[in-house]
Amino acid sequence: MSVASAGVPASGTVHNEPVSPRRRKRSFTGYWLLLPGMLWLVVFFLLPTLQLLATSLYDPAGSLDSGYAMTWAVSNYPHILSSFEAPFLRSLFYAASATILALLLAYPLAYSIAFKAGRWKNFMLVLVIAPFFTSFLVRTLAWKSILSDNGFLVNALQAVHVLSPDGRLLATSVAVVTGLTYNFLPFMVLPLYASLEKIDLRLIEAGKDLYANGFTSFRKITLPLSMPGLVAGTLLTFIPAAGDYINAELLGTPRQYMIGNVIDNLFLVQLDYPSAAACSVVLMAAIVVMVLVYVRRAGTEELV
Amino acid sequence: MTRAGRWVSDHVVMALAIVVLLYMFLPIFFVVLMSFNDPASRLSYEFDGFTLNNWTDPCGPSGMCHSVLVSLQIGFLATLGATLLGTLIAFALVRHRFYGRAATSLLIFLPMATPEVVMGSSLLALFTSAGLSGSLGFWSILVAHIMFCLSFVVVTVKARLAGLDSSLEQAAMDLYSNEWQTFWRITFPLVFPGILAAALLSFSLSFDDFIVTNFNHGNTITFPMFVWGAAQRGIPPQVNVVGTVMFVVALTLVLAGGLLQRRRPA
How many CB pairs below 8 Å do chains A and B form together? Predict the structure, then answer.
């Protein structure tokens, strides 16, 4: 199971039987097929990433109008880490919370679709992706209505004394994490479903024959076999959640700002390119390191 | 398993799943509801009164319908570009030998593992250093969208291609069809559902993108950019009309596609 294809809906069951290397043709055609697309990725992905790295080392005394001098200003990094420590940590904390919540919501759903839905399987899969046919921003604004101070949810929670009479949901960390969990939920459900669906039911039956109860057979058979989907799902949820700033902007306040809000503000409002680039590089590096450690510990196969 | 245990696992898990699905549809219900809202003030996010005005005058807010048009154009062109380039790569990966396979796979994987805010800001840094920051607009959004859709096309088409039964192609070759005929009569029709899925995915990624676009849009306003700008000044309820229409159109397409596939099993 690959991380990426696991997140792709509608392609049906994926059999990843690689064509044996002997059948692959040895000619120049392969290079010609690769050339345009890979050139695009080199020019508009790789090159920009290198430029970002360079920009993060520019002299912070420069400006967009006067131009920046390359001074290998490594000091940009300690500077932004101390200035923006809180949004960095908040991003990781919010993204981790949203990932765990999404996992708790997604597992029963994916499990039901894979094992209990019967002929409703495809219908339920459509229901999983259907809410995401509307725009991300419109959806997030709908959450603003749901969580609003006089909305039904706040009133209900106040009535059962979960919230104090003047307590609110909007403009709190809870609102931001709710939005993040919601917006990236399908990225958790679909890979989980893909790996649960592949489980050979005879294994579970064999477990029952050997007197495993429901919980034991889940813990010893189903859960371990769904690990590839679980790993793919958590990555596909965590990565976009850590870089997101739409939820923090629309559902939170500056006290809930994540590192994405900081990068956006530094690049587009303050026009402080070196600091902004350094923040982006740190976010990227943090994610790459976490992904590598996580994938290695979880022991999944190749990523693409 | 005891009978009670079986009942629990049969019903409780399904009940949980239905609750989660309801949670997923809650905001959609609100989008539809708010499309009939008659807001008391510009900054109101609550349902204040029922009206049909938003549906009879969808293009009321200035610039909104134009922004939808821009998003449709960019979505269409980005889908075309990314699907073409990505399908070629997928064929190369599955069917051809070449040097640098590991590096190629890495370069395809990385954009999917990179947060959008990093990709968007990197592109802005590149365009600025190339002296293009003044001329950003339609073209730079398009270039960026093709870039981030490309990897998703590659993995989608590649999955379909790798699962293909190669004996069908061998049978065609045995029956004296040449490589060209085999490709267009056998391979392409079999891979086509994968290409179609990749194209739909690209379109929805492009149409809905905000973060990368926000860094590279210049003065061009896509629909998500319009909503973002409006969120600061007060959201016109017609935004929810667009949201509802998008939902209904996409759902209809998916259900129609599903019915077609059922009638004509691939």
Answer: 326
